[in-house]
Design a protein that fits this description.
The protein has helices at about 10-25, 35-45, 70, 85-95, 115-125, 170-180, 190-195, 200-205, 210-215, 230-250, 255-265, 290, 295-310, 315-325, 330-335, 335-340, 345-355, and strands at about 5-10, 30, 45-50, 55-60, 65, 75-80, 105, 130-135, 140-145, 150-155, 160-165, 185. It is α/β, with parallel strands linked by helices. The strands form two sheets. Strands 5-2-1-6-7-8-11-12 form an eight-stranded mixed sheet, sandwiched between helices. A four-stranded mixed sheet has the order 4-3-10-9, sandwiched between helices. Helix 4 links the parallel strand 6 (about 75-80) and strand 7 (about 105). Helix 4 packs parallel to helix 5 (about 115-125), helix 8 (about 200-205) packs across helix 13 and helix 13 runs antiparallel to helix 14.
Length: about 350
Amino acid sequence: MKKRFVIIGAGNGGQSLAGDMVLRGSNVTAIYDKNAEAVAAITKNGGIKMSGPVVQGFAPIECATNDLEVAMNAGDVFLVCITSNFHKALAYEIAPYIKPEYTVVLLPGYIGSSIMFSNTLKKCGVKELPLIGEAVSFPYATRLIEPAHAGIKARKDALPVAALPATRNEKFIKIVQEAIPEAILSSDTLSVGFNNVNPATHVAFYLFNLGKVESPEAKNSDFHSWGTPTVIRIRYEMDAERLAVMNAMHLKTITFDEFHQICYHNKHYKLIHQAEGLPKSASQVPDRFIDEDVPMSLIPMSDFGKKLGVPTPTIDVLIQMANLVRKKNFAIEGTTLENMGVGGMSIDEILAFVRG
């Protein structure tokens, strides 16, 4: 039976995914967001306009809603297109509506995202979990052009995904490919989260270019061109530490360069110019480049490194810089082994848990 897909999150990613899926013929039954303005724009237009070099057309959306109960009753596969630092809060919110026959796909997952999500549902009293899994990244590089109008800059050629536990991988990939045909199987969700290279793409470039980030220059700028030789070196040193942690865990690694070869064949996409008045989260250089990538990736990388005895000096310095810039301690809100619920386990026990 054809699956009914609900998009959770109506930002850049959610609107792009909804529009693309509708135009491809997938059964998108609803899109949900707390942001009343985003939902109102989609409702007013009757759907989402798609433009840019990858997808063009108009995608009718039958149900755009701020009512989570309505959204949860509208489908059986929930494609979660919100930043990963809100996954835990979402798990609390959807727990009353969860059914064991549902599927939840985290787009993207970071280190431990599926573990955190499933453990939160358990804490809320969910006895029989749905099928839960994650993707290594989002299917596209994309931005909003204006309200209810998305522009996909590039589509990934392949998108590794996995289920928790990995024994459910085959069922998971069949469901995900109905929505995202480019999805391919990875070994397990921990490998997926570790191989999300967003932090290597974003963090050093952001922190070492604050003058540009905080100036009008950031609007409609090519963030990826901001790499000086030193900043690029720091990016690769940070990524080498990620790979060292993964190697110590005997996880299959994807280097930063391999990731971009797999996903984009190393082709750089062009900017899409945006209208005035869009949410800050839709900007070319959004806050999530720090507020998501540091707590949800660098913090657990460092934590795993400490448990394994693998030093992560570059990662640790970038965490401290981000703390200074944001005036907070990201370790408090970030993903740690303890708040993932696996703090008392050995590495072998954690791997056995995710693999099933």
